[in-house]
Amino acid sequence: MALESNERPDRPIAKFESMLKTDDIYFFDAEDFEDIIHHYLNNGKINLAKKAIKIGLQQHPGSIELKLLDVEVLVFENHLDLAEQYLDELQLLDSSNEEIFIQRANIYSKKDNHEAAVALLNKALDLSENSFDIYSLLGMEYLFMDDFKLAKESFMRCVSFDEQDYSSLYNVIYCFEFLEDYDGAIVYLNDYLERNPYCEVAWHQLGKQYIAKNMLNEALGAFDFAIISDDTFIGAYFEKGKVLEKLGRYNEAIENYETTIKMEDPTSHAYLRIGKCHERLGNYEMAKYYYYHTVHEDPLLDKGWLAITDFYYKRNNYKKALFYVNKALNIDGENPQYWKKCATINAALQRYDQADFSYKQAVDLGNYELGTWLDWADVVFKNKDVRGALQILAQGQEFYPDNAVIKYKAAGFYLEMNDSINARISLIDALKLDIQKLPVFNEEFPQYAATDWVRNIVAKHEKSKGKTS
């Protein structure tokens, strides 16, 4: 027996769930079913949404809105062909329904045809009286197309419709940041704050833009206003702490990080920042205490293990540093900086084979910094593989063809091999690139720097340079 809606004064969702638990069948208005289905979709309860759609269509078989919600679920579950078939049928019944074009756009978006999706959403805009959601969808399509200018304009329209739409506000700022238009973001946020002076989200974002411009005092002021607007806004305290660190005001930074710990469960990131502040203040035992708290709170935070690594490395305790950098590598073995750090520590321990392997890993993972090539070559040279060291320098030269230091080092290595011809060529090339870097050669290879052979090459270069000038 079907019970009328007004016989059950309970809220539609509670009444619907009660119905599912019993053999009773309650009658709902089509609008009630729409509310129920939207509730489940918004909360990710797809199976309950599908049950509501099925029962809703049994009670209201002619409801286009319920059929469109059925299509929405089909699109979500990637049943795109069936969804398109239903949309074709619906369009014959109601060709001016903007939701039909929106769902077609979603299908094209799923197929990575974002240009077609944009065209359909623009058609939906022509038919819609409430275009807020459509502009949000347009913004996302433009993001997929890497058209950040149009994406920004779309999300701006969303914010103009609803200034409490913080999701769109974040997306506007994201577009500004991607376009590296920090000045534009600052102007936009200040204009927004003129109308919403107590919006902690906008103050927080404004502070981050000031940081990008290295306007640290202005950033500090923005975060203060974010905290005034909402004194429980943990993100503002944390960002304020980071700015205070950059300003060298470490004790104040610690106070802000500690506030975040008091307000919510402690986070490993807060412990890490507090540890770094104490280390800069010279409170080394306190720094160590917080670094260990960091990894205790989150053993998978590789930056915590790296902080402990650096702590011991700076104090020449290389064995402990090696132990802890390996902890970081066990968590993120694809991080080239960690492999480079591991190589540096192994080199300090004179474990040149392991250092060689670690530098190779760093380079294979994409670390092509000049220092990596130079240090790797030194390690291989100290391991008595001069040819290998020269090969590494040759690889580095491909990335830094105009770098004189590589050439000076190569000249020294060739001299170690008694290859005076290639040593002469490398030294002359280095002098041509930058004679001011000659002291690098003199310091690293003093046994050759004072020889007449080197002095003559340098003198001839200076003489020829004088003639050409």
UniProtKB/TrEMBL annotation:
PROSITE patterns: TPR. It holds the Pfam family TPR_16. The lineage of its organism: Bacteria, Pseudomonadati, Bacteroidota, Flavobacteriia, Flavobacteriales. The keyword Transcription regulation does not apply. It comes from the Bacteria. Keywords: TPR repeat. TPR repeats lie at residues 98-131, 132-165, 234-267, 268-301, 302-335. InterPro entries: TPR-like_helical_dom_sf, TPR_rpt. SUPFAM superfamilies: TPR-like (SSF48452). Transmembrane segments: none annotated. This is Tetratricopeptide repeat-containing protein. Signal peptide: none annotated.
